[in-house]
Amino acid sequence: MDQSRDVVVGSGRVERTARGLVGRALSRRALLKGSAVVGAGAGIATLLAACGGSTAPTATTTSSTSTATTGGTGASTQTTGTTGATPTTSTSAPPGGVATPGAAQTVPAGTPGGTLNFGLLRDPIAFDPHIAYGASSASLQGNVYDTLVTYDQQGNIVPSLASSWEIQNSSKTYVFHLQSGVTFHDGTALTADDVVYTFDRIRDSATAAELRQELANLDSYTATDSTTVTVNLKQPYSVLLSVLASQWAYIVSKAWGQAGNDFKKKMNGTGPFKLGTFEPQVKYTLVKNDKYWVPNRPYLDQIVETVIADDTARMNAFKSGQINFVEYVPWQNMDELSTNSADKMYLGYDTFNLVRLNPQKPPLDKPEVRQALNFAIDRKACIDVAFGGKGQPITVGLIPPGSFWYNQQLDGHWTYDTAKATSLLQQVGLKPSDLKLSFDVANISVHSDTAQAVQSQLQKWGATVTIVQQDVPTLTKRRSTGDYQMMMDGLGDPWPDPDFYTTYFGKGGASYAAGVNFDDPKIDALLDQGRTETDNTKRKAIYAQVEQQLFVDAPFIFILWRPQVEASIAGMQGYSHIPGIGLASERFMLNVWFKK
Amino acid sequence: MIAYIIRRSISTVVLLLLIATVVFLFLHLLPGDPAITILGGIDSTPDSSAIARVHQELGLDRPLYVQYVDWLGNLARFNLGNSFTSDTSVGAELMRRLPRTLMLIIPAEVLAIVIGIPLGMAAARLRRTAWDPTISALALLGFSTPVFVSGLLMVLLFSLKLHWLPSGGFVSPADDFGGFLRAAILPVITLSLGPMATTMRMTRSSMLEQMGLDYVRTARSKGVNERIVLYRHVLRNALLPVVTILGLHVGFMFAGSVLVEDIFNWPGINSYLLTAIGARDYPVVQGIVIVVATIFILINFVTDLSFAVLDPRIRYE
């Protein structure tokens, strides 16, 4: 199934974005060799213009030594002809020619005004723009802060605070040119020093920043002048732009930070909205930044984010009209929403459910046993039981089907085959009934429902599986110390670049490997190669090898992609669940407006 | 009476100390680490040095008894400390949240009394008619329906079908009193159903018991007006067990409002507690438990004292 199938259902119509078509229509090599195009292609821009109004190519073209490739799931192109069903619109460049994050440039089409009443699943906990507090905080920080580069609605990397960049020195030097006229909410102007300060802060271990390992790849970075930042790498690092576009790479103010302001309690960004009044765990108000550097953005006067933890209460608030946008829509509500013309639904299969296997705990120390567990699971049945049939099986790895990086030739590796599972066990002298496994599961329904399906399948096969139900803090503690045998989890890819495998399976990878001392030198070597290679076709082949090695190591039971759904009233325009970005699409509320 | 109050006060302090100790110990025995939440929670994977640094900032690297003595010392000075996650004063946050929970509990209790007691009396008086089983059946229904069922049914009817009332949320009465009333109606009714039913049942059975006693027959044989018999003699004596129940209701209501606040997204003390437990925010959990325990003990104290007012035979020495 195509993960890019972000379906907007409303008024009985189903639109498919043509991203996959655009992406595949072009040769990556041609892109790499051609003159550099940085930014959203007009081809994509026209796609975005479906809401009406004319589009303009944002492409800030530079005559640099190399090309900024997107590294994303799609491609940036200069093509104006579209392959999809969207009408081609006239193109006229607006003065200034700046890009709009989260969208390709469009001449104002939306109606200004209105309030987005947003129902959040979880409290954002705190405001630190470099710590990962989960998706609910992306909507808060992402609309207050900007990143150097960002994503358009197709998941391509486009300019943001950096209006252009050049890649030089065999991809070991990146020169970023900052957008002019950008000010922080406290009134101070953005300079290159702020970018350097941001990188310093992320790399400082005291910050505990999410990107500390990624930015450790930077050799040096300097403010060449007040609007230019030069980044030198030890070796080519193809993932850099994806990292800098992610929701943990927000640019902060040096003067503000050095004045002793607490990043956890206050926010001072350059983004489309400013933090207004708030009550922790209850309600956060974001107000329009009238001085935002992108002309005619944002449309909304304000965003009011209300935390409604209970699924039913959140959906009731949406159905009764108290909120007009809601995240984490339970799958049980999907049918109802897709048939109701008063609502719109935004769907992506970009969160995956998996079982972590601890290779330190026998009998899971034997790869054959871990592989056998993968073959003993009927993924289709899991999807039917836990998500009412609304999900997609994982048959390869963690790259979503439909992504440019998906290795089609490996498709279907993980299947339901108990005979194979049993014979794998026999190779190490075991039979299913020898397996007595303990299974840690958090009390989150999307986790525990899947876990019960997995348990019943493994029991049917002959193994004994004991579920240990616990609350989230208990689970996170055990996860970080590796104190488990099997553990249910649900995760999302941090960015649409397959180097995310490093955070799981690279040596010391914080998301999995570190906790259980997982280390496969073959995978490490391949991941190193993948990071330093700049040709996307070659990179893709490298990650196919990574996935083949994961077939052997089987560190997870790969189960399913679960539906990740947001919903709004039908009149809301300008939001999309971006392929590969998933729930972090909530960062881009600057494009949202309401039809009167 | 004074001596009794003094003795009760001392035992209250001892009880609170015991509760404080138990809460502290159990909370710290629970698996889980507040540092992980502060560094992002389930979506984050902080390294051990970052966790160690947070432990140091929060003072969690100190021996447990030092933390305990430190916390008790602050408690004695009415300082509940600061939240680990938001770094705001627990006392200040409680001052903001507790009134909201009381805005549910007090009206619910009043509703339980003004509807439960008359209904119970009616059922007792109309014992041999069809009214008694009808009222009793309703009470049974109210008592046995969990709040998450009755609450959701009311949301379904009054919010989603009829669009009369909001499905949840809190509006400060200081900002918009009408909005506050609209927001409070459903949660208050939901919360009051159970206590209303027990009040009704208790009033009914207690009245019936009194009505069969000798003094009632004596009063009637003296030719006392039936209304005076019922209201001055029977009701007064029948209310003793009812008042006991009302005192216990407060505990029931605090427990019931956990679910009610969740269903109606009411930002009171319980949603604060639930989030804090999920974050292992020790000062917040400890603070809330101590405050609620104090309220509960005080109310039972007042209940005991009110017996002496209701029944002159009861004396506290």
The residue-averaged pLDDT of chain A reads 83
Structural class of chain A: alpha+beta
Helical coverage of chain A, percent range: 25-40%
Stated plainly, the CATH topology of the largest domain in chain A is called: Dipeptide-binding Protein, domain 1
Please provide the ordered H/E string of secondary-structure elements of chain B.
HHHHHHHHHHHH
What is the terminal separation of chain B in angstroms?
Answer: 5 Å
Q: What is the H level of CATH, i.e. the homologous superfamily of the largest domain in chain B?
A: MetI-like
Largest sheet, strands/sense/barrel of chain A: 13 strands, mixed
- What's the helix count of chain A? 19
CA-based shape of chain B: globular
Radius of gyration of chain B: 24 Å
Secondary structure tally: strands of chain B: 0
CATH domain class of the largest domain in chain B: Mainly Alpha
- Quick one: CATH class of the largest domain in chain A? Alpha Beta
Full CATH superfamily name of the largest domain in chain A = Dipeptide-binding Protein, Domain 1
Structure description:
With 596 residues, chain A is an alpha+beta fold. Chain A folds into 2 domains: 286 residues, Dipeptide-binding Protein, Domain 1 (Dipeptide-binding Protein, domain 1), CATH 3.90.76.10; 212 residues, Dipeptide-binding Protein, Domain 3 (Dipeptide-binding Protein, domain 3). Helices cover 28% and strands 21% of the residues of chain A. Chain A is built from 19 helices and 23 strands. Chain A is globular, with a radius of gyration of 23 Å. The mean pLDDT of chain B is 87. Classes of the chains: A alpha+beta (596), B mainly alpha (317). At the A-B interface, helix 9 and helix 15 of A face helix 2, helix 3, helix 7 and helix 11 of B.
Features:
heterodimer, A: about 600 residues, alpha+beta, Dipeptide-binding Protein, domain 1, Dipeptide-binding Protein, domain 3, 13-stranded mixed beta sheet, 4-stranded antiparallel beta sheet, globular, disordered N terminus, B: about 325 residues, mainly alpha, MetI-like fold, 2 domains, about 75% helix
